[in-house]
Amino acid sequence: MxxxxxxxxxxxxxxxxxxxxxxxxxxxxxxxxxxQCDLALMRAEGEFLDQIPExxxxxxxxSKSLWSMWKPLKKLISESDYDVVYSTCGGASMPLMxxxxxxxxxxxxxxxxxxxxFPPKKSKAKRRLMIxxxxxxxxxxxxxxxxxxxxxxxxxxxxxxxxERIKVVYNPIVNKTLLEGARDEIKHxxxxxxxxxVLAVGRFEWQKDYDTLLRAFKKVxxxxxxxxxxxxxxxxxxSHLRTMVSDMEMEDKVCFAGFDTNPFKYxxxxxxxxxxSQHEGMPGTxxxxxxxxxxxxxxxxxxxxxxxxxxxxNGYLVEVADDAALAEKILSLLINNDLKSxxxxxxxxxxxxxSEKNGVVSYFNFLEK
Length: 369
Hints:
Shape: globular
CATH class of the largest domain: Alpha Beta
Order of helices and strands: EHEEHEHEHEHEHEHEHEHEHEHEHHH
Largest sheet: 7 strands, parallel
Radius of gyration: 21 Å
Number of strands: 13
């Protein structure tokens, strides 16, 4: 029997984000005959912690921040015999490379970029410093994984990483959990209150731009009475968004339903799914919604949505922060059942590469060379 490749995956935690879910999916579905996988977390916490398989050893680094986690990670790597250390988080990639570099790790290092390199909200000085650090460290990595072609291009053009060392990976999102969860019964009473429902799923952070979605939905609600907005997620902006809904006098039409490990049943049932983000890497919730056969509308933000949606064929793309255009597209789907059915039928085909089998292979196949 061939020796299995021993891999240590590294993340901050297993919270409620898309990359957290992807990491759990990888750990559940990797080929046990070829690989042995463990997981190191900055802090062993998060909603998906109980979904780690029993044969995956968990290391709690007990660090207060990403910048301090390199020290216990260096110790762990130095005292172990891993063939590969593998980050599935852009933030964890830098301390991973620092730990590997200072610890003189001789194996394969894999870092990850899951979002655009220039988030608009960060100061220019902070962005420049981050780029300099990433460029220095990523050039020392064996491989750089990117979750979309757009992110891969940024890694090459901005960080100066050679394109032959960049691998585009497809998150293993469409799996048994999704397909079975999509068939679950919805018991939430909100779905029975209105003839039609608009759905959004994601963290309550500036990046997701729920402000634009709420302004767009206000316009929709002024045209048609019998429609509700159902939002799954949580995050630091929840209080702000609830206040915004109250100021708009839409408390009866907007439901903040919290985090749910099974958003898929809602994606199947919703009349329209909306991604209103300012920027992404490859939006996992959009992939999930399309896999569930939802009629989707997404902002044409950098990066990802335009690699999934062909505007007018399997969904709609609208400009970032354009609430009027978003409202117009939502209304067009609510009133046009034929168009809605067209999008529903075409959407799953567009995300076939994100099946569990294809996705897991894309994360592991280059390690065997």
